[in-house]
DNA sequence: AAAACTCGCAACCGCCTAAAT
DNA sequence: TATTTAGGCGGTTGCGAGTTT
């Protein structure tokens, strides 16, 4: 039995326990104790540290808040993308999902899912676990996130770091948000010989970033023949092409789950800077919501696909 | 200005399982 | 082998802050 529901009571449990938010003093006490004795043995820690908390409470406080490598702040587009992808594979296995997002806790991911993703599902009057909702995520949100991911990460990185097509581990180290990127990942280099290379290509490399940790097992490839990047991200057959020379506006075109998705990247603005990214705006776009509504209320038939190349 | 409402998140609860006895 | 203990996990709750009416 865990201490929380045991019918017997020890000396420690008879003691009045603190509940609710942790105080600064409690945090200091816990941090100091762990610094001296290490983590683990949570019930012993709770008894010996002088904290009037349960072992469970101490563990949770440490893992979700005090641990030095806990990252705070808005989830980046690639983190959101990864959560969506991993949740579609594993469901509510929050701790498992969290293992692929270094510094993020299962609690944080769970909260994100419940407050953001499930909220969207509720507004759309569909079950968040329904195939219809998953399709909507795959067809609309993931491309949008990939668009953000592509513009904020790949482009910024390319613009700032590379004037040739070589990539070193040092460059990986200097990437923004590098801590969640697996440095061992390969880079996808576009065909520099393509006649459809973007304008002013000398100022940016054709190096695309590695996929985040956790996507490493998903095959992806460079593609000279279609000019752009073809991510075969999702085992369901979802794929996208990143067309570099199709204009300057971002345009999310409704597509079927099996069709390629095209969008344009804007090299001309600061949109590529992920440091100012506010994750919220990805989830509050009226236009996107309208599209989703029409998608989930409609039809299982395929949404018309617009081919930018035509 | 204040009440009502919404949202995000930290913390708790209860169940489960592996390890220890 | 049975029982107890500790830790981990997912679901849920409650509160404070921000926003809307």
TrEMBL record:
<dbReference type="GO" id="GO:0003700">
    <property type="term" value="F:DNA-binding transcription factor activity"/>
</dbReference>
<feature type="domain" description="HTH myb-type">
    <location>
        <begin position="14"/>
        <end position="66"/>
    </location>
</feature>
<keyword id="KW-0804">Transcription</keyword>
<dbReference type="InterPro" id="IPR001005">
    <property type="entry name" value="SANT/Myb"/>
</dbReference>
<protein>
    <submittedName>
        <fullName>Uncharacterized protein</fullName>
    </submittedName>
</protein>
<keyword id="KW-0805">Transcription regulation</keyword>
<feature type="domain" description="HTH myb-type">
    <location>
        <begin position="67"/>
        <end position="121"/>
    </location>
</feature>
<dbReference type="InterPro" id="IPR017930">
    <property type="entry name" value="Myb_dom"/>
</dbReference>
<dbReference type="InterPro" id="IPR044676">
    <property type="entry name" value="EOBI/EOBII-like_plant"/>
</dbReference>
<dbReference type="Pfam" id="PF00249">
    <property type="entry name" value="Myb_DNA-binding"/>
</dbReference>
<keyword id="KW-0677">Repeat</keyword>
<dbReference type="GO" id="GO:0043565">
    <property type="term" value="F:sequence-specific DNA binding"/>
</dbReference>
<keyword id="KW-0238">DNA-binding</keyword>
<feature type="domain" description="Myb-like">
    <location>
        <begin position="67"/>
        <end position="117"/>
    </location>
</feature>
<dbReference type="InterPro" id="IPR009057">
    <property type="entry name" value="Homeodomain-like_sf"/>
</dbReference>
<dbReference type="GO" id="GO:0005634">
    <property type="term" value="C:nucleus"/>
</dbReference>
<feature type="domain" description="Myb-like">
    <location>
        <begin position="14"/>
        <end position="66"/>
    </location>
</feature>
<keyword id="KW-0539">Nucleus</keyword>
């Amino acid at each position: 039995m865990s201490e929380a529901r045991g019918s017997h009571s020890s000396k420690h449990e008879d003691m009045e326990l603190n509940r609710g938010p942790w105080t600064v003093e409690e945090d200091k006490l816990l941090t100091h104790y762990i610094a001296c004795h290490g983590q683990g043995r949570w019930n012993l820690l709770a008894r010996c540290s002088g904290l009037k908390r349960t072992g469970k409470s101490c563990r949770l406080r440490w893992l979700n808040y005090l641990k030095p490598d806990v990252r705070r702040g808005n989830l980046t587009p690639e983190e959101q993308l990864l959560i969506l992808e991993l949740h579609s594979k594993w469901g509510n296995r929050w701790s498992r999902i969290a293992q692929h997002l270094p510094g993020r806790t299962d609690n944080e991911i769970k909260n994100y899912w419940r407050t953001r993703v499930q909220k969207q599902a509720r507004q759309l009057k569909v079950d968040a676990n329904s195939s219809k909702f998953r399709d909507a995520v795959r067809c609309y949100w993931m491309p949008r996130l990939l668009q953000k991911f592509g513009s904020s990460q790949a482009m910024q990185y390319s613009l700032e770091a590379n004037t040739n097509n070589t990539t070193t581990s040092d460059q990986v180290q200097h990437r923004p948000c590098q801590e969640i990127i697996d440095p061992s990942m390969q880079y996808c280099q576009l065909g520099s010989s393509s006649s459809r290379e973007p304008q002013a290509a000398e100022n940016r490399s054709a190096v695309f970033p590695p996929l985040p940790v956790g996507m490493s097992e998903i095959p992806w490839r460079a593609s000279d023949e279609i000019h752009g990047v073809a991510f075969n991200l999702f085992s369901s057959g979802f794929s996208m092409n990143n067309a570099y020379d199709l204009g300057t506006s971002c345009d999310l075109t409704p597509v079927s789950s099996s069709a390629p998705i095209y969008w344009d990247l804007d090299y001309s603005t600061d949109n590529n800077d992920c440091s100012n990214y506010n994750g919220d705006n990805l989830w509050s776009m009226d236009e996107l919501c309208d599209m989703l509504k029409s998608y989930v209320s409609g039809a299982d038939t395929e949404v018309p696909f617009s081919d930018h190349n035509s």
